[in-house]
Design goal:
alpha/beta; Rossmann fold; Helicase, Ruva Protein, domain 3; 5-stranded parallel beta sheet; 46% helix; 13% strand
């Protein structure tokens, strides 16, 4: 081939794909070296394909479309000290790390690709959780993802399908090479995160009074409020100030669990009760004996699980999935919802007798837009938190910036304000935060946010709900996360409604 023909072909070649594959090959070499080097140091039992005894407990969070990967790891390490948890959405990983710490995060490539903020989440983990190793199970059709994964700091992956021995070696390698002595800063922030409940307003003083009253008793508490108002933090404060403060505190977000897995998650299961159940597994209520269980987004319970929960509240006993005898559990129940449970009862979607059992003592958290005077105080608290995280010396907001914050409607409430302040502190190189440090939506006209919708009398609830979802998505540029926050529902619930109403 002549030089001219060679250059012509080179011009037509897909060089982006070439360099992408070069990344893959180079990274594959690193993976093989690490895995083989680690395999040589394994115990004779491990080298022979037996169970690895890891010594100290290894904690793994699997993020996959279903629980199969979690079950597989429990079988692989059934003779060792391994604690495996499962999460069905990558976008909820930071929430899990805010209440717990894991040595290894094992993610399937499909669940990562479905995430809206995958790269940002990995960057936060790399910065705030240096003790955690992030590993990927990469499908062949997702090889192009390797470059973004490399940039985010992940150092190992395996292509699927992956054999049991290779998967075990991969996890062993990550476990042995994990950094020593680091901390989970996200967990630390959550422990300090009670600053999201800061406020001098009369509305917040009522909340503080209710928290003190609830903590002095052992009755069920129902915490209501829009997404991002801090329902989980109120539950945590009640537990800490209660007589059960030395017992376990376990949080379960019902909306984040596949409906068919809720019963086994809460009440546990017996060996052989379903495929992959190779041993008895205690549920959350059993694990929390002597302490508190906080059930978030309880409106996501289906009819069958509502009946099971009602039976537990009445009898304080339950049966594990596949079990024949009842188990006693001495736990206190706190529950929360961002949905209108009374409306759910009227619609037949939530049992009225269960609501009566849960709604013994109610705490309502006001949305941030109803307590504008607390916004500068909250913003200042978040600035102090992220000054510590990013080694900054921001002292406050300019008057113009404070005005923009107070005139904004805050559909995501205190959680949205926290995220805005985190971004602002990170971008600010001076002493004060200015409007330029805020997201663009704060500097744009808000004509669409004041849009009103009217309906004819006799319009069905389904038609009203569909139209409100369509209008909300249209108003924010089809941002589904923000739409869910504006509508006061979880993103999972929004996706279910999009599918039900055939909204593209």
């Amino acid at each position: 081939m002549g030089a001219a023909e060679y250059l012509q072909q080179a011009d037509n070649y897909n060089w982006d794909y070439f360099y992408e594959m070069l990344d893959v090959l180079q990274y594959e070499f690193i993976n093989v070296s690490l895995r083989e080097g680690n395999a040589n140091s394994l115990s004779p039992e491990a080298s022979a394909g037996g169970v690895v005894n890891i010594g100290a407990a290894m904690r793994i969070l699997t993020v996959s479309p279903n629980i199969d990967l979690k079950s597989r790891l429990e079988v692989l390490f059934s003779g060792g000290q391994v604690d495996v948890a499962w999460e069905g959405s990558f976008d909820r990983v930071l929430n899990r790390f805010s209440v717990d710490t894991f040595d290894i995060l094992l993610v399937t490539s499909q669940i990562y690709r479905d995430s809206q903020d995958g790269v940002e989440i990995l960057e936060v983990l790399a910065d705030q959780c240096p003790v955690t190793q992030v590993l990927f199970l990469l499908e062949p059709r997702h090889v192009g993802m390797v470059r973004s994964v490399l940039r985010a700091g992940t150092y190992q992956y395996a292509r699927t399908p992956v054999a049991d021995e290779e998967l075990r070696n991969l996890l062993e390698s990550a476990w042995e090479q994990r950094p020593r002595g680091g901390t989970n800063q996200l967990l630390k922030d959550e422990e300090e995160g009670l600053d999201e409940l800061v406020g001098h307003s009369a509305l917040m003083q009522d909340v503080y009074r209710s928290i003190r009253q609830a903590a002095a008793t052992d009755i069920p508490v129902l915490i209501l409020g829009e997404t991002g108002t801090g329902k989980d933090l109120v539950a945590k404060v009640i537990h800490r100030q209660s007589a059960r403060h030395e017992g376990p505190y376990i949080t379960v977000n019902i909306g984040a669990i596949a409906p068919e897995m809720v019963a086994s998650e809460l009440f546990g299961y017996e060996k052989g009760s379903f495929p992959g159940a190779d041993r008895q597994h205690p549920g959350r209520f059993e694990q929390a004996t002597g302490g508190t269980v906080f059930l978030d987004e309880i409106s996501s319970f289906d009819e069958r699980d509502q009946i099971t929960l009602l039976h537990f509240l009445e009898e304080r006993r339950f049966r594990r999935l596949g079990g024949t005898h009842e188990v006693n559990a001495d736990v206190r129940l706190l529950a929360a919802s961002s949905a209108d449970l009374a409306a759910k009862v009227r619609e037949g979607a939530f049992r009225d007798d269960l609501l009566y059992r849960l709604d013994v003592f109610r705490i309502h958290l006001p949305p941030l837009r109803e307590r504008h005077g607390d916004i500068p105080l909250l913003a200042g608290s978040f600035i102090q938190r992220y000054n510590r995280s990013y080694q900054k010396r921001v002292i406050g907001l300019t008057p113009e910036c404070a005005g923009l914050l107070q005139s904004y409607r805050w559909p995501g409430n205190a959680r949205e304000l926290r995220n805005v302040m985190q971004r602002a502190v990170l971008l600010c190189d001076g002493a004060t935060i200015t409007p330029e440090h805020l997201p663009a939506r704060f500097r744009m006209p808000r004509a669409e946010s004041d849009e009103t919708v009217s309906f004819r009398v006799g319009t069905t609830l389904q038609e009203v709900e569909r139209e409100m979802i369509v209008r909300t998505l249209r108003s924010n540029g089809n941002n589904r996360q923000q739409a869910a926050e504006m509508l006061g529902i979880s993103r999972r619930a929004l996706y279910n409604k999009l599918s039900r109403y055939d909204i593209g």
